[in-house]
Structure formats: structure tokens, C-alpha cells
Automatic annotation (TrEMBL):
Localization per Swiss-Prot or TrEMBL: Cell membrane
Positions of transmembrane segments: 27-47, 291-314, 335-362, 382-404
Protein's UniProt name: FtsX-like permease family protein
Domain ABC3 transporter permease C-terminal: 295-409
Family as reported in the entry's similarity comment: Belongs to the ABC-4 integral membrane protein family.
Length: 417
């Protein structure tokens, strides 16, 4: 065991000495591997960061959450002209499902409406996102309040003029002053602030609850009416934990079909969308991006591998005389093999580490310039980069190393002379 350990140590020392003595050659070899590893890990890090940011924006919603609306998340076999004739889900349907749908943890009726302007005394905030929801939305979205409370069922049903402000909206209107119980104006009407959300930070696409407000949906229903196409309604449902999703959706679909008096041969004129399906779609897209990036970056790494192999063949040629002397003094074939193999692997790993370091620097700079979007170089990607480097070095150096180990000592000395 000690003999093999000594063999490996001496082979390693010979490899390091050879790299130090040929600095220009070492640098050129490193360059190819560095560019290849940088390309691959940069792509992996960028796609991972993108996926993390998108999923982070959805993290407040459970993957089991179901959205009932007249639109479908993905493609549909139903012709577009027929889908456009589907009616919107209604508040009455929400109330019916709330009373008759089993295994429901929370159900909410929400209206997506246009942005509005909020005023408080002389201060004005424009382009505010309005969330018109019921009291159950607080359970489904898992909102976090910095102060105050969310509106209750009585306020939701009666359409009381109360409002919850996003962090940025509260800061712009009140600064360091107390926001609770203050009276703001929106839609030409007065609302009492009863809550302020915790700071969330901007999302990838600029959306954030920091720039949103939430108020009872029945307030917006009185303003817009129930047949206004400018307000897009949806029903959000969070099933009880452990409920079979397929069975739950089947019951939900049948309940709504019965309420709409649809015949058995008629198609459902609504869509039941699962948030899990949207998450799976994101996984599929990021997987394809990863694959494309790896294929493109692989060409860079291939060039780096060929560069190492070429340098190793040159090293074998230049050190033929030394190899012959080593073998004539008793050096075994495996000693020569490990010597050149270590040299190739060390080259590749150093190049890979430099590539990882460059990705780390770029990720820090990119995060600084993109504000709230954070580029992350994960430990897994660092491990992948190191392993890929080692494998490339092993593959690139194996043939030159075998060629060196099989040289005849007499012929090697004669050729070297």
C-alpha cells in the first residue's frame, strides 16, 4: 500500500514540476478548459437562478392550489372560437362551491382589474396593482403582514371600505408615519387602512406585492359590475392536505357542470387549472434551456479537451529522452502513466477552478446590476464543474499517457538524443 502511495506522490510531483517548467504551454492549455467550464457552469447557474426566481414568485401559493376560470394555462384541444364564448366564473358560483364542495381548506373569489391611483392628503401613488379578493385569500396566498390585519368575512361579504397596503405603497404614502387607521382615496372613494404587508422585494418580471393593495372583492363588484370584461374573475381553491387531486378535480368539475346545467354530451365551458401543472411547465422549459446550453457549451469544452490532448502529446515527444532514462533506472510503466495522467488532470482541474471563479465573479456583478434578481452559483454546480474538469483531463490525457508508458527505454533514449 505504501509503495502505491509513494508511486502516486512521485508521479504527482513530476507532473507539477512539468507544468511549472512550461508556463506558456500550461497557460494555453488552461485557457481552453477555463472557457469551456465557464460556459457550462455559467449556463447552469443562469438557468438555475431563473428557475429559482420564477418558483420563488409562486412559492406563496401551494402547488395543490386550483384556479377555475374561462382560460387554460397551457394549450387546449378546444377551438379558440369556442373558448372565447365561455362565460366567466361568477360570485354566485363561488358561493355555491364554498357551501357544497367537500375537502376544501380555503376557497377565494378574485377579480383582476386595471391599475389604479391612490391618494393620501397631498401624496399620490400611480400604477398601483389592485387585488380584489375575499377574506379566504389570506389563507391561500399565505400573506405576511408587517402590521395590522387582513379583512374578515363580514367585511368581505358586505364590501366594507377597508384596504391592505403593500410595503412600498405604504412607504410612499406615509413614510415613517403610522399607516393604520389612515384614510386614503381610490376610485373616488375613501378606504381605511387596516394592514400593511411585509416587504417582499421585486420579482423577476417586476411584479411584487410591495406595489399592490388588497381590498374586499365586493367593493370592486359594485364599482365594475359583474359583467364588465375589464375585470377578469377566477376562483382559487386550496384542497385539504392529503386529498387525491384527480378525484377532487373530478368532483369540482361535476359540481360546476351541474350548477351550469350542462348536458352529458356538452363540453365543460370552464377550465380547472392546477398550479402544479404550471410548475411542471417551468421545469420542462428550464430543462430544455439547460440541455441547449450544455450542448452549446460542450463544444467549447471539447476544444479545451483537444487542447490538453495536443499539449500532452507534445510533452511526451519532448520528454522522450527523460522517459527512457526513467525506465532504464527502473521506473515502471504505471509510474510513467500516472505522471502524464496527473499532469493532464491537474491542468483540467485548475482550468475548471479558474472557470468557476470567473462564474462566481460574474454572478456577483450580475446580481449587483440586476437589483433584486440574484444569480446563484450553487455547490452542486461547483461540484459538477470540478468533476467535468477532472473527467476531461482524464479523457484527454489517457492516450498520451499510455503512449508514454509503453515507450521502449532504449529507443526512447536514442530518439531523445
Amino acid at each position: 500500500m505504501l509503495i502505491y502511495l509513494r508511486l502516486l506522490t512521485e508521479s504527482f510531483n513530476f507532473a507539477v514540476s512539468a507544468l511549472i517548467n512550461n508556463k506558456l504551454r500550461t497557460f494555453l492549455s488552461l485557457l481552453g478548459v477555463t472557457i469551456g467550464i465557464f460556459s457550462i457552469i455559467a449556463v447552469l447557474a443562469a438557468v438555475d437562478s431563473l428557475e429559482r426566481e420564477i418558483k420563488g414568485s409562486l412559492s406563496s401559493l401551494d402547488n395543490s392550489t386550483i384556479m377555475v376560470m374561462r382560460f387554460k394555462f397551457g394549450p387546449s384541444e378546444i377551438p379558440r372560437w369556442k373558448r372565447e364564448q365561455f362565460p366567466d366564473v361568477s360570485y354566485d358560483e363561488y358561493q355555491y362551491l364554498e357551501k357544497n364542495l367537500p375537502d376544501v381548506e380555503a376557497i377565494d373569489y378574485a377579480l383582476n382589474v386595471g391599475r389604479e391611483t391612490i391618494k393620501f392628503e397631498e401624496k399620490t401613488v400611480s400604477q398601483v396593482e389592485v387585488g380584489a379578493v375575499t377574506h379566504n385569500y389570506y389563507q391561500i396566498e399565505a400573506l405576511q403582514l408587517a402590521e395590522g390585519r387582513f379583512f374578515n368575512e363580514a367585511e368581505s361579504v358586505s364590501g366594507t371600505h377597508v384596504i391592505i397596503l403593500g410595503h412600498e405603497i405604504a412607504q410612499n404614502l406615509f413614510g415613517q408615519r403610522e399607516a393604520l387607521r389612515k384614510e386614503i382615496r381610490m376610485y373616488g372613494q375613501r378606504f381605511i387602512v387596516i394592514g400593511v404587508l411585509k416587504k417582499e422585494g421585486a420579482g423577476l418580471f417586476g411584479g411584487s406585492k410591495d406595489t399592490s393593495v388588497f381590498l374586499p372583492v365586493n367593493v370592486i363588484r359594485r364599482i365594475y359590475g359583474d359583467n364588465n370584461k375589464a375585470a377578469f374573475p377566477q376562483i382559487l381553491i386550496k384542497p385539504n392536505e392529503g386529498v387525491d387531486n384527480a378525484e377532487f378535480i373530478a368532483v369540482l368539475t361535476q359540481k360546476l357542470r351541474n350548477y351550469r346545467a350542462l348536458k352529458p354530451d356538452e363540453i365543460s365551458n370552464f377550465f380547472v387549472n392546477q398550479l402544479q401543472g404550471f410548475a411542471d411547465l417551468i421545469d420542462n422549459i428550464t430543462g430544455q434551456l439547460n440541455l441547449m446550453g450544455l450542448v452549446i457549451s460542450g463544444f467549447s469544452l471539447l476544444v479545451g479537451g483537444f487542447g490538453i490532448a495536443n499539449i500532452m502529446f507534445v510533452s511526451v515527444k519532448e520528454r522522450t529522452n527523460l522517459i527512457g532514462i526513467q525506465k532504464s533506472l527502473g521506473a515502471k510503466n504505471r509510474f510513467i502513466l500516472f505522471q502524464f495522467l496527473f499532469e493532464a488532470v491537474i491542468l483540467a482541474i485548475i482550468g475548471g477552478l479558474i472557470g468557476l471563479f470567473l462564474v462566481w465573479i460574474v454572478s456577483i456583478l450580475a446580481s449587483q446590476f440586476t437589483g433584486d434578481f440574484e444569480f446563484v452559483l450553487s455547490p452542486w454546480n461547483m461540484f459538477i464543474g470540478t468533476m467535468v474538469s477532472a473527467v476531461i483531463g482524464l479523457i484527454s490525457g489517457i492516450i498520451p499517457a499510455i503512449a508514454a508508458s509503453k515507450l521502449d527505454p532504449v529507443e526512447a533514449i536514442r530518439t531523445g538524443m
